[in-house]
Automatic annotation (TrEMBL):
GO biological process, one term: tetrapyrrole biosynthetic process
Organism: Ancylobacter rudongensis
Domain of life: Bacteria
Domain Tetrapyrrole biosynthesis uroporphyrinogen III synthase: 14-228
Protein name: Uroporphyrinogen-III synthase
Listed CDD domains: HemD
GO terms assigned for molecular function: uroporphyrinogen-III synthase activity
Family annotation (Pfam families): HEM4 (PF02602)
Amino acid sequence: MQVLVTRPQPDAQATAARLDAAGHGAIIDPMLAVEAVEARLPAGAFDAVALTSVNGARLLGGRPELPALAGLPLYAVGRRTAAAAPGAFGTVHVAGGDGAALAELLRARLPRGARLLYVAGEERAVDLGAALAGDGISTELFVIYRTVPAQALAPATIEAARDGRIDAAFHFSPRTAATLAARAQEAGVATYFRHVEHLCFSANVAKPLAAAGWPTRVAAAPTEEDLFDLLNG
């Protein structure tokens, strides 16, 4: 099968390599690019650090503020984020793959009065501060990157859509899904994507695709392994 991969680099290339190893083809067209932004670490001491994305985990490793966080417990939204995080932290706690699971883990582990550093991007799928405020946990936001949407579909993607050569598409985030739907509409190829099997990380990811009238299937759990299970099922 030919699978459209729209996640940012370098993850898009890694997914494409995995598709190739499984006997599938990949069309890479990232719908978002990740850019570091200037940021200042909030003052004061913290009791823990939270990460909700692989992008944040990777970029934190190159930040000059990292030594100030060394030894603190790290709370990661899922396994991939934990694996991408720098090794400077103490105990690493891994949630079940989404923001709600991470908030639940933090409530269970952190005492009232704890101060949490939330390392994130400019646009966030979860508001940890609001989720934890009622539990007496103070959350400080440390924004270190932004994601910039693609301005157009790649010519190869447009051609493949028109020729009916895209069998499936992997969707990892609501923003990449929404950006693909918008760019396909602008390119005049949105109707072709109604014949593509759109395999989604979660129900939230599927929403902008369903709104475009495209068929969606949602993974049993928000992992790449489960997307491959959908593809091969």
